[in-house]
Amino acid sequence: MSKDFDSIIERELFPDFIAAWQAARKGNAVPLRSDIRLQEFAKFADSLQIYELKSRLDLRCRLMGSRVSERVQQVGLEDNLFDFFGEASKKVGEKWWNGMASAPCGGIMCFSTHYSSGARKEVPSLVLPMTGSDGGVLFLAFNQLPRKLDQREPREKLTIADDVFEGKFIDIGFGLPEGIENPVRL
After folding, report:
1. Which domains does the chain have, with CATH numbers?
2. Among 45, 48, 152, 154, which one has the highest count of C-beta atoms within 10 angstroms of its own C-beta?
3. Residues 11-20: tens digit of each pLDDT
4. 12: helix, coil or strand?
5. CA 180 to CA 166: how far, in whole Å?
């Protein structure tokens, strides 16, 4: 499956999200977490997430909007998101998240989420980088509402990107990751 990322990034609130992120930048630098004023992102708040990339295979969600937390109740703020990735997508996810950190760059992605209820949904998400107060890599993500793909057998654990993951890097002024195919696909 091949996504038309240009049309995805132009729909709904994604252009407004990019504009709010751009406004938080000082010059051409990646914004600091302290520059991201949540009141400027209020209309995105229920579907907003902040991620921290602690190491190559350690990605933590540090803030989760209400719509997201209702959907993924099994994922806590101290959980490593890579522990919820499907086995086939873990390597692709590692390339994706670490690629965005290395450039730095943004990205638009579509991924499946297989819920414990058995529902499998596709989620489009726009991810843009920030820098934490300690200089660490953070990402600000805005998820559109998921689209149901199908209903499968219930499962014990939520699985992220178990069989669908496509992402395209977005140049924000620092170029794109070297040596990684763009778009990235499972």
Report:
1. 5-35+43-172 (3.30.450.20)
2. 48
3. 778 999 999 9
4. coil
5. 13
